[in-house]
Structures are given as structure tokens and as C-alpha cells.
């Protein structure tokens, strides 16, 4: 590659003629390069001694550019993760309406301008953070689906013990925070599909209005609001909450 970005002929080599003055110490002051033809160059030092040599030139930029791009991309991804982690942490402890971009910047160790450049605005960063949070929550719930009712309820109660309070917080802020709404819509659809999957054998013999009513009953019993009523409002233990859910579900399953 030549100095002006064009590929040199002869395997990346070109011939140059160097003409030097008696005192070459002023090289940078009067160096000029002329290229009368492709594949050769003339370096004119002003006369007196003349010599020919071959120079191999490697464009260092072509070697380092992919590395630099990868490094920048990695750094950008790490910065985004710090911002999102800080946002999720703040959301768990505060009302979204009260969280500012300055709060997020301080907790993530970046500037407000960096957040804006990456996510656009406050709604943008919260939408991304909550989307990821929702994915994390639902992935834990769907990790184990047992055909045994006790195993199924153990997994469900464990899920609510880990994430139920945060989900309830999201529901409480749904009407005032647009960034939350897509995640909650997806969560409701997921909960419906989850119930249809784990209780498929009980729903299969039913049809029409009977099936719709039974599906609604199963969805309601397994909902986070039911866990909230039993565990938080009524103060049942984790084991008693699981037992209460079983007592509500068992007649519906046996009836089918």
C-alpha cells in the first residue's frame, strides 16, 4: 500500500531514488516525493549523492483497524451494560417517575450525554432495561415445567418469591410509565401460554365456554396477584402459600 492509500505494484514494493544533501539533518523541512509512474518513487534531497534502494511499505492502518473497531464495540457494549444494570437497580428501589438521567449516570459511572447518545432519552433506557429484566424474570419461570402439580407449584412459588414484588411494582407503575407497558403485555401473554401448557391435559376434554372459563380460573389462581394476596396480605408462609394454591387448583384438575 502506498502512502496515499493506493496499492503498490510488485508485491507491495516500489523503487525509490534518494538524492541527499551534504547535511541531511533538515530532512523533514524539505523532503518532497514525486511519483512519475506507478510502481516507483523519487525522493529528492536536492542533489550530490544518488543511490537506489527498494522499500517495503505496510499500511499499518489496515492491520490495526479491525482490532480498534472490535475494541470500541466491546467498550460500547460494556458501557451499555453498566447503564442498564444501574437502571434496573434504581428501578427496583425507586419509582420510575422520580429517577433522573443524572441518577443513572452517577450509578453507572458515565455522563448523561453518553446515556442520551446510546439510548436517546429516559424512556429509551428504561424500555431497554425493563425489556431485559422481563426476559430474565420469565426465563427463570420457564426453566422447569413439571407435570407433577407439587413440582409445578414449587417452581411457581419460587419464581414469585424471587421476582413477585418487582413484578407487582411494575404493575403499580404501569399507567404512569409507558416504558413498562410492553414488558407487562408480553408477561401477561406468557402467563396465559404457560397455564395453557402446564394444564393442557385438564383443558383438552373441555370445549367452548367451559374451556374458556376453566382456562380463566387456572390463569387467575396462578397469577402474581393471588400469590400477593396469600403471601403478603394474608401473611402465609411460603409452604402454606403453595398448599393454598394446590387446594384451589386440585378440584379443577380432578374435575377435568
Which structural traits does this protein have?
elongated; 256 residues; alpha+beta; Arc Repressor Mutant, subunit A
SSE order and pairing:
Layout lengths: L8 H4 E8 L6 H4 L2 E2 L5 E5 L4 E8 L3 H34 L7 H8 L3 H8 L2 H20 L7 H24 L8 H18 L1 H4 L4 H14 L2 H10 L4 H18 L1
Parallel strand pairs: 1-3
Antiparallel strand pairs: 1-4, 2-3
What does this structure look like?
The protein folds into three domains: 9-58, no CATH class; 73-120, Arc Repressor Mutant, subunit A, CATH 1.10.10; 148-255, no CATH class. 65% of the residues lie in helices and 9% in strands. The protein has helices spanning 9-12, 27-30, 60-93, 101-108, 112-119, 122-141, 149-172, 181-198, 200-203, 208-221, 224-233, 238-255; strands spanning 13-20, 33-34, 40-44, 49-56.
Shape type: elongated
Could you say how many structural domains there are in total?
Answer: 3
Structural class: alpha+beta
* Beta-strand fraction estimate: 5-15%
Give the strand line-up of the largest sheet.
Answer: 2-3-1-4
Note the main sheet: 4 strands, mixed
Distance, first to last CA: 77 Å
How many strands appear in the DSSP assignment?
4
**Distinct helical segment count:** 12
What is the N-to-C succession of helices and strands? HEHEEEHHHHHHHHHH
What level of helicity do the residues show? 55-70%
Mean pLDDT: 78
Gyration radius (Cα, Å) is 34 Å
Low-confidence stretches: 1-51
Amino acid at each position: 500500500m502506498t502512502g496515499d492509500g493506493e496499492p503498490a505494484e510488485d508485491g507491495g514494493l516500489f523503487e525509490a531514488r534518494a538524492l541527499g544533501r551534504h547535511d541531511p539533518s533538515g530532512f523533514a523541512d524539505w523532503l518532497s516525493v514525486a511519483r512519475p509512474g506507478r510502481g516507483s518513487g523519487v525522493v529528492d534531497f536536492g542533489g550530490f549523492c544518488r543511490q537506489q534502494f527498494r522499500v517495503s511499505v505496510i499500511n499499518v492502518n489496515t492491520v490495526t483497524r479491525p482490532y480498534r473497531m472490535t475494541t470500541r464495540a466491546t467498550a460500547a457494549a460494556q458501557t451499555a451494560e453498566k447503564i442498564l444494570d444501574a437502571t434496573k437497580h434504581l428501578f427496583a428501589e425507586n419509582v420510575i417517575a422520580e429517577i433522573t438521567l443524572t441518577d443513572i449516570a452517577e450509578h453507572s459511572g458515565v455522563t448523561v450525554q453518553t446515556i442520551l447518545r446510546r439510548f436517546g432519552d429516559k424512556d429509551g433506557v428504561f424500555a431497554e432495561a425493563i425489556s431485559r429484566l422481563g426476559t430474565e424474570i420469565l426465563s427463570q419461570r420457564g426453566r422447569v415445567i413439571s407435570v407433577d402439580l407439587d413440582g409445578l407449584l414449587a417452581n411457581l412459588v419460587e419464581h414469585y418469591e424471587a421476582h413477585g414484588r418487582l413484578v407487582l411494582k411494575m404493575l403499580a407503575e404501569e399507567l404512569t410509565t409507558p416504558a413498562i407497558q410492553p414488558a407487562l403485555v408480553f408477561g401477561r401473554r406468557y402467563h396465559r401460554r404457560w397455564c395453557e401448557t402446564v394444564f393442557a391435559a385438564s383443558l383438552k376434554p373441555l370445549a367452548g365456554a367451559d374451556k374458556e372459563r376453566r382456562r380463566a380460573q387456572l390463569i387467575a389462581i396462578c397469577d402474581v396477584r393471588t400469590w400477593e394476596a396469600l403471601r403478603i396480605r394474608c401473611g402465609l408462609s411460603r409452604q402454606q402459600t403453595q398448599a393454598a394454591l394446590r387446594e384451589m387448583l386440585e378440584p379443577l384438575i380432578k374435575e377435568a
